[in-house]
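USER: Fancy drafting a protein?

ASSISTANT:
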Amino acid sequence: MNNIKETKEKVCAFYVSDYHFEMISLPYINKKIENKENIIILTENNLEETIKTLLSKMNFKKEKKEKIFKLNWNNCNSEKLEKIQKGKETTIFIKGSQNYIKQTNQKIEKMNLNDATIKIVDCYNMEEIGENMDEIMEKYKKVLKTAGEQTL
């Protein structure tokens, strides 16, 4: 894990549907936005429609909903990593298949991100990982749940 080893924290999360992923991540994302931290959503599938639907049902002010939607929930991920800024904490959500998560993490590790403080939240689909959940959790120190991060 080249240059970002000491400034990178890894967290895992598990979801059963796109809506479930969004429900788990929204309180956490909202808190990060309030702290003026950088949020990047890297997703294997486009989440724009599901996040629009979910935000329309949330009791958030219009301004907050707009900030959350502007995080770019589509699956065009090529330019999103350019938003990592030195000196600013960045949380990166990686949501998709195990292979997608692995490849995306490898891509991030190859980037020259000296002085960047990064938290990566690897989000696994419960249907795909099935009985391997314990094996996956062994690789992490924390898990993201609706109530926030919990130490394993």
